[in-house]
Design brief:
alpha/beta; Rossmann fold; 12 strands; 14% strand
Length: 337
């Protein structure tokens, strides 16, 4: 019998835990790894009650967390951790970690943001649809107004690793980048040539808005009617972050009233988004099913960092990407040298 039990679920490429097992072997940790399937919250609690660590997310409310007396940590396979009650975890000595984009999907998500920006700016979907309908002339008529992209302004809401990679790629197209991030050190912004401004200035002065902030209590509906009313009527709104960062009703209103030019959305407030969502009826909206992080390479890389982080904790060391830094762990941990 293995010394530790670890469960995993909700990764993008299910069906095997061999990558995780490989990382545990490299770390010299004796772990039994199980890919978890469950039918309900009660079923989940029953199956993980002997867990030393869990890789996965979006199931961890206070009731679940309080049912894990042995579990030392939960780490998501995803960048987002909005399905975890972090306060409850801290109260119960449970370490919470996420899987930062820099470990597996920073290229993919930044590419998706740039792809959506370009597709919106050049009206590719509208033109493609009209040409395929035999409406060549109408496709031409749909072109104006259209900015040149070069010498326009990209506004970033959140300036983390993905946003900074977007900046590098956007600058190749001649875009000037401004950003709002109250947590980013100015020296880092300067390194990436991002001019830090407040949120209203980002909304008013940008030709394209790209949202990259995580979803927290502070960022829920961070972009709402007040912010959309500040945008240029020729500006586009891009989001590859988390759906509820955007007040979707306010976005729909802004689009229907032509207060903004269009939107490129990888995420929605409710996922899957309902088929009757008004956003899906608008020809100036590009809708993608929360797939920005997807590529074969990303899928292969995604499980590696979570396994390494779990191995650190099981060997008695602090993990590197702790969300609840004020947690008192269930077992004493040392800092990695």
């Amino acid at each position: 019998m293995a010394e530790y039990k670890v469960y995993g679920f909700a990764k993008l490429k299910p069906g095997s835990v061999e990558p995780e097992i490989g990382e545990f072997k490299k770390a010299g940790v004796d772990v039994e790894v199980t890919e978890l399937k469950f039918s309900s919250e009660d079923d989940f609690i029953e199956k993980v009650k002997d867990a030393d660590a869990i890789m996965g997310g979006h199931m961890f409310n206070r009731r679940v967390i309080e049912s894990l007396p042995k579990c030392q940590m939960v780490i998501t396979y995803s960048v987002g951790y909005d399905g975890i009650d972090v306060e409850a975890a801290t109260d119960n000595g449970l370490i919470i970690c996420n899987n930062p984009a820099s470990e597996w999907c920073v290229e993919e998500v930044s590419n998706q943001a740039i792809a959506l920006l370009l597709a919106c700016a050049k009206k590719l979907v509208i033109q493609d649809t009209l040409v395929k309908q035999g409406k060549w002339g109408e496709a031409k008529q749909a072109l104006p107004p259209m900015g040149g992209i070069h010498d326009e302004v990209l506004g970033l809401v959140g300036c983390g690793a993905i946003a900074r990679m977007v900046t590098r790629k956007a600058q190749v197209f001649g875009l000037k980048c401004i950003g709002y991030d109250p947590y980013l050190d100015k020296s880092v912004a300067d390194e990436y040539d991002i001019e830090l401004v407040d949120l209203p200035d980002v909304m008013k002065n940008s030709d394209y808005i790209s949202v990259h902030t995580p979803l927290t209590d502070d960022t829920y509906h961070l972009v709402s009617e007040k912010e959309f009313n500040l945008m240029k009527p020729t500006a586009y709104y891009i989001s590859t972050a988390r759906g509820p960062v955007t007040d979707e009703k306010a976005l729909i209103k802004a689009l229907q009233e032509k207060k903004i030019a269009g939107a490129g959305l990888d995420v929605f407030e409710q996922e899957p988004t309902p088929p009757d969502n008004p956003l899906l009826k608008l020809d100036n909206v590009i809708a993608i099913p929360h797939s920005a992080s997807y590529s074969n390479a990303a899928l292969d890389t995604q499980p590696l960092n979570p396994a390494r982080e779990v191995a650190r904790v099981l060997k008695g060391y602090w993990p590197r990407n702790v969300i609840n830094r004020d947690v008192t762990p269930k077992k004493p941990l040392k800092k990695e040298k």
